[in-house]
């Protein structure tokens, strides 16, 4: 198994090949004994046992059955010879070389780890759709698993549209804005576990957009589009996507803010997600609507767990639609504080300082400061989804 398996997504159920541990072993440095021989031993009434051999790490040591009155030296993790039913810790014995005197034999049975106490051969350890963490890769290796079947990382095409968008570092003229979405959306897609395929910025021309979409659909497993999904005269994304193939546009417009003009479509078997051009709207919609859809390419659901936090500022927004409010999280002695980042969907500070989102359902009314809320963390590279 390659260490590069970490962060990949399993394409099949994985079962243990071997028992873990593969043999009954000692959990302490000491002497393997028959528990009944030493149960009553204490420093006033020590029990003397002859040393019948030694177990070395990686070796089995004596293979004959341990007899009453005998002990075998064993290290932590060492194999226990047949007949051993307990282990006396080294510090509870007086070592005389060819013999020992047991000064405390109570609880010697507790220093044994039975074969298969951790994992039994045939146990299901991971399921299809699970993300392999560093710890789980180690667990699978320890259970004798040598080969894994994982999904090929889906490639997601990213099309950013707009004549007004200029790359960082280039001269900025009146009416132009810096390209934010190419970087933020690509970073979010990578953090979610996908391979973003960025294309050249698409100008506001129908023919250019048609060519860019056709290319992205031919080269990628899904496509994310930024901009052109509103209702302006030059926002023809839904029309072009609908013409690209069936079943076409499924949703155009959601009752949530930010992100109302979001579009969800399928062309053949490939998801196409149209996001607003405003940076906050685009990222919020990718996280809340786009991510669950894209994760189905892995045949998995989102496993992001919410963080319980205390709201630091009253949230009072129009009640007729759902609101997805970015928040900044801060750990305190009392727990986690969540500070709402309020403003327009084009304000960069909301994008840059946000750690999570709070879902305020339509009709829920204001949420007072001090209320405990569930904050859904934004995807980031260390979260492994």
Overview of this protein structure:
The protein has 385 residues and is an alpha/beta fold. It has four domains: 3-21 and 118-142, no CATH class; 25-113, Molybdopterin biosynthesis moeA protein, domain 3 (Beta Complex); 155-298, Molybdenum Cofactor Biosythetic Enzyme, Chain A (3-Layer(aba) Sandwich); 307-377, MoeA, C-terminal, domain IV (Beta-clip, Beta Barrel). Helix content is 18%, strand content 28%. It is built from seven helices and 24 strands. It has helices at 35-38, 134-142, 181-192, 206-219, 237-244, 279-295, 348-353; strands spanning 14-15, 25-26, 30-33, 47-54, 70-74, 86-89, 93-95, 99-102, 112-113, 124-126, 155-160, 165-166, 177-178, 195-198, 222-226, 247-252, 256-257, 263-267, 270-275, 307-311, 322-332, 335-340, 356-360, 372-377. Strands 6-3-5-4-8-7 form a six-stranded mixed sheet. Strands 14-11-15-19-18-16 form a six-stranded mixed sheet, sandwiched between helices. Strand 21 (322-332) and strand 22 form a beta hairpin. Helix 3 (181-192) packs parallel to helix 6 and helix 4 packs across helix 5.
